[in-house]
Design goal:
mainly alpha; ABC transporter transmembrane region fold; 2 domains; two-stranded antiparallel ribbon; two-stranded antiparallel sheet; 9 helices; elongated; transmembrane helix; ABC transmembrane type-1 domain-containing protein; ABC1_TM_dom
Length: 389
């Protein structure tokens, strides 16, 4: 799919790079919000216990404050600031992704049209008019969607998982154990969904394309069908193909109704494991760190939700990528086709527009049993000149 970018100018590739860059920052900034929320919850818990909070943390930096009030002010400022920054980064990522899609599709369509002008008639006869129209319309629309997926969706979703694991590991080693226990189950459920559901998704798309082709054939040949009373056979053919699609669609629904709840179940199991570990830590270490543990629980449940969301969205992104890759391959196939009539570069210049034939002979070949046996002369020593203009 990345091969499609070689048909775009450098400016569009730069837009794609900017979109991907901001898409990497977006999950990182999203993970900061649970960190700040955790400290606010810890602060409230300490106030309830009659203790003060004289320090706030941001990533690997600790900021010393004069007391609980100043800590709360700092946390509120950080929460508002990072929320505003997250909004800007998300907007810029979506903005550059949209520009990549719109302008990228424009240049792809323009390049395809200019390439078709260079092809010979024999090249174009390999493709039907409907096929060429499909490549300019439906295929390019799908490519536009998959460009957005590549420069944004395929970056944002996996990095929710990556940054989620980084933040959980650096926050609380004990609670991160629960996350790492759940990860293999999430991956297993994801692999199940990929190998079970996605082949059916692809087959469903393939059958839908066949249904569209049948509909197109019926629309184009409707006069012929009615003239020869072919309505019943055509209906039978369309009905059978529609039943085939329905069977595949039903399997998609059945497998999907099991796959996604299973993944949700693993996420809930992860939350249970986190709370069980918190109960164990409180029982073993006493009440000294209860306020901090309460904040850690809020952060870890939020991180686990973001990680599971990243897994979900990554799966759907890969699915969309598979669905649209066919259109990209069809576009690249047409762009890679070369004219059977080579373009000749010559330093010879036309000095006169007149065409002159001198002593031209022409004979018809005579074949017997596939072999040339004789020729029949039709023209001999013809001299002809066609003046320019």
């Amino acid at each position: 799919m990345l091969k499609i970018f070689k048909y775009m100018p450098a400016r569009i590739k730069f837009f794609a790079f900017l979109s991907a860059f901001f898409a990497i920052l977006q999950p990182f900034l999203s993970m900061l919000n649970p960190t700040i929320t955790k400290q606010l919850i810890t602060l409230i818990a300490k106030v309830q216990n009659g203790t003060s909070m004289n320090e706030v943390s941001l990533l690997f930096w600790n900021i010393t404050t004069s007391g609980t009030s100043q800590s709360m002010i700092y946390l509120i400022i950080m929460a508002i600031g990072f929320a505003f920054l997250l909004m800007i980064v998300a907007f810029l990522s979506a903005f550059f992704a949209a520009r990549t899609c719109i302008y990228g599709t424009y240049y792809l369509r323009k390049n395809l049209f200019e390439h078709l002008l260079t092809l010979s008639r024999s090249n174009l006869e390999k493709y039907s008019v409907g096929s060429l129209i499909t490549r300019f319309s439906n295929d390019l629309n799908k490519i536009k969607d998959v460009i957005f997926v590549v420069v944004r969706g395929l970056v944002v979703s996996p990095f929710f998982v990556v940054w989620g694991l980084v933040f959980t590991t650096t926050t609380n080693v004990y609670l991160s154990i629960a996350i790492y226990i759940i990860i293999p189950f999430l991956v297993g459920a994801a692999v199940f969904a990929i190998f079970k559901l996605f082949p059916y998704y692809r087959k469903e798309n393939w059958i839908l394309d066949q249904l569209n082709e049948l509909s197109k054939e019926d629309i184009n040949a409707i006069a012929l069908i009615k003239s020869y009373n072919l309505e019943e056979p055509r209906y039978e053919k369309y009905f059978n193909k529609n039943q085939e699609w329905f069977t595949i669609y039903r399997k998609n629904v059945v497998f999907g109704s099991f796959a996604w709840p299973i993944i949700n179940g693993f996420v809930l199991f992860g939350n249970v494991a986190i709370f069980a570990l918190v109960a164990y830590l409180i029982g073993s270490k006493g009440d000294d760190n209860v306020a901090k543990l309460i904040g850690d629980v809020s952060q870890f449940t939020a991180n686990l939700s973001m990680i599971s969301m990243g897994v979900f969205n990554t799966l759907f992104t890969i699915n969309r990528l598979f669905r649209s890759s066919v259109s990209a391959k069809r576009y690249i196939e047409l762009m890679n086709s070369k004219s059977e009539i080579p373009f000749v570069v010559s330093d010879k210049k036309v000095t006169s527009g007149a065409i002159e034939f001198k002593n031209v002979n022409f004979a018809y070949p005579i074949y017997k049993k596939g072999k040339l046996v004789d020729t029949k002369e039709a023209l001999k020593n013809i001299n002809l000149k066609i003046e320019a203009g």
